[in-house]
Design goal:
alpha/beta, 2-enoyl-CoA Hydratase, Chain A, domain 1, 5 domains, 8-stranded mixed beta sheet, 44% helix
């Protein structure tokens, strides 16, 4: 019984008054015990009247970074910002841009909500926030860099690309008071950790094997089953800090570039009698991935929520608003996906071939121009395509037109045009330095997409010509219906020297008429206008003609 209550008993005059007093105390205790967490006061640092939720869903890319920056500005009137994460990962530079925005332009009351999964880039973004909350059954972690095909990188490349990631997550840990060793285990394979607890203060800390041996004077216990099951010798996985770069130099230490001091307990000054082992967190042959219960135990998760109402209650907010991506950002993200860009490249090539081969005037050229404008315009908007990419594409198209219409037959002009065109299109996929693994990965994706687009165009053109070459629809493309005359389908090739009339413009391909029959032909020189008199100068797969001077 409290001291005040004991003192009060002395002043009670009879047993009845004493019993009434005890009943009142009991009722007060019961009412206090029955108060739920939802009614518990919200800490002042977390209180917010208006909360803005900014969702990040799907792969993180340049569009995601630009969209996040816009929506963060739109949320400037909110007291708190919640970044709702549901992502498998994404582009490294875009991830770092989002983290920069969080740390430099977001309000201090910025919280990550993992709903339901946030791997790789999602984990890095979540750590940049002051607090992390998670949905029931959520999961996050596994932030190791991989290449475009989803395959882990070789040791030398991994060491190089892990450097900025480790520097970022360690900085986030120091800002937001997460355990530095724990966040490193999200990124690097080879970091093995144990959780220990101070028996007096209940402080928990994650330690590696060296720190464990330093504190307890013995090797740490092993309670995890290795992933590898082969009978050969186990491969020793080397953590980032022990890897050399491609030139054999010492690796770039992310701890060296930290601006904030560490707040970790110095194990060297601790007594082993004050600490006890809790559990083995992660072995050295896998990356750390956490569910809500474990993440809460390690101090990464502040709260588990089920829906937006739980989020609202957690802040004690009156208003909660969502700021979604707008339709243009969604369209832009779609246009930057490699399947769409591959289709645009194939459609561009098909339209160019049809335009120059059929002698039509305009429609296919306009379609090709639209395809190229979308192909280069979308990456230009988000900063993937540079000015020289657009310049190379423009020069390539000019040279190809010159080869076809002005100086046909030279070959060199056309070759240079195609080369400029390819370099410009591939360059629109690359935003990073080509000496970095990320830039090299983007280059491979760009080359594969462009080559695949040209190959797809070739297959599609062959299929269209073979299956529909003699159909009325195809004939209308070359003005057969307008001419209302039959097209030659027999092998009665005219002789060299025979004159004919150009039934369509030859740019360089088109139609000529001999008698009352149309033939496909191509010019050996400059563009020949419809109605001009031409002479056959060569036969073979196609008829080659030249204009007859009046």
């Amino acid at each position: 019984m409290p001291t005040a209550a004991i003192a009060a008993v002395g002043f009670l005059q009879n047993e009845f008054q004493y019993n009434v007093y005890m009943v009142e105390l009991l009722l007060l205790a019961l009412s206090t015990f029955c108060v739920t967490d939802s009614n518990a006061p919200v800490p002042s640092y977390r209180q917010a009247s208006t909360v803005a939720i900014i969702p990040i869903e799907g792969a993180v890319d340049k569009v995601t970074a630009h969209s996040f920056e816009r929506r963060l500005k739109e949320a400037s009137d909110a007291d708190a910002v919640v970044i709702e994460l549901n992502t498998p990962g994404g582009d490294l530079m875009s991830t770092l841009e989002i983290c920069y925005q969080i740390k430099n332009h977001a309000p201090s009351n910025t919280v990550a909500w993992i709903n339901p999964h946030a791997f790789s880039a999602g984990t890095i973004i979540g750590l940049a926030c002051r607090d992390i909350i998670i949905s029931d059954g959520g999961m996050f972690g596994d932030a190791a860099p991989i290449n475009a095909m989803g395959v882990p990188l070789p040791d030398s490349e991994r060491a190089k690309i892990e450097s900025p990631i480790l520097a970022e997550v360690i900085d986030s840990a120091r800002r937001n008071h997460y355990d530095e060793r724990l966040v490193e285990a999200f990124v690097s394979v080879g970091i093995e950790l144990w959780l220990i607890e101070h028996i007096h203060t209940n402080e928990t800390i994650c330690v590696n094997a060296r720190e464990y041996e330093m504190l307890f004077g013995e090797s740490p216990p092993q309670h995890f089953t290795p992933i590898s099951t082969n009978d050969g010798p186990q491969q020793s996985l080397t953590p980032f800090f022990q890897l050399n770069d491609v030139n054999g130099n010492e690796p770039y230490d992310p701890l060296f570039v930290q601006e904030l001091p560490t707040s970790r307990t110095n194990i060297e000054t601790e007594s082993r009698d004050d600490w006890k082992l809790i559990k083995h967190i992660v072995p050295n042959d896998r990356l750390l991935t956490l569910k809500p219960q474990e993440a809460t135990q390690y101090g990464l998760i502040k709260h588990v929520v089920s829906n937006e109402q739980d989020v609202k209650d957690w802040f004690g907010a009156k208003t909660l608003k969502r700021i979604e991506r707008n339709w243009s950002e969604g369209l832009l993200s779609l246009l930057l996906s490699w399947p769409v860009r591959l289709a645009l490249i194939a459609l561009f090539v098909i339209c160019i071939v049809v335009e120059f081969s059929t002698g039509t005037s305009g429609p296919f050229g306009i379609a090709a121009s639209i395809c190229m404008a979308i192909l280069m315009g979308a990456p230009w908007i988000v900063g993937l395509a540079q000015w020289w990419d657009v310049l190379f594409v423009f020069l390539g198209l000019i040279l190809i037109v010159c080869e076809v219409m002005i100086v046909p037959g030279t070959g060199f002009t056309g070759f240079m045009g195609v080369a400029f065109l390819l370099v410009g299109m591939v360059g629109s996929f690359v935003s990073g330095d080509l000496t970095t693994p990320e830039g090299q990965t983007q280059l491979v994706v760009g080359l594969s997409t462009v080559v695949g687009g040209f190959a797809l165009a070739g297959v599609a053109t062959w299929f269209i010509v073979k299956k529909y070459g003699a159909s009325p629809a195809i004939n209308r493309l070359v003005l057969d219906d307008a001419l209302d005359v039959p097209t030659s389908t027999e092998h009665n090739t005219p002789s060299v020297g025979v004159t004919a009339v150009a039934s369509t413009d030859l740019r360089p391909s088109g139609k000529i008429m001999i008698g009352d029959v149309l033939y496909d032909a191509t010019t050996s020189g400059s563009w020949i206008s419809q109605g001009a008199t031409v002479k056959i100068i060569q036969t073979g797969l196609t008829l080659e003609v030249e204009e007859v001077e009046a």
